[in-house]
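Lab notes, practical 5.
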Amino acid sequence: QVRLVESGGGSVQAGGSLRLSCVGSGRMRDINAMGWYRQAPGKQRELVAVISNGGNTKYADSVKGRLTITRNNAKNTVYLQMDSLKPEDTAVYFCTGGRWLAEYFVEHWGQGTQVTVSS
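Output from the prediction step:
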């Protein structure tokens, strides 16, 4: 089993920045990628960004140029640097772990952390 624990959520004004962190533990060798999903009230959960063990990345079009995913493999930690935040970025952000082949298949979820952006 893989355990994922997020931190770093909070409230910020539009244009501000936040940095989310997620520490993984357990059978990390079972996954080859980690990523972030988000879910806004009344909306479906959506992929924000994913990063492979080798450092390949993929982003949702809505966050390109503003959000950056990085990882520290030695610490089993993935980060999401969020800049130029907009009110529409308000959501619960979930750390994920899984297998990224042609697509990213999520196998493990964190508990989520709230990000609120006010206008």
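Observations recorded by the TA: The mean pLDDT is 97. DSSP finds no helices and eleven strands in the chain.
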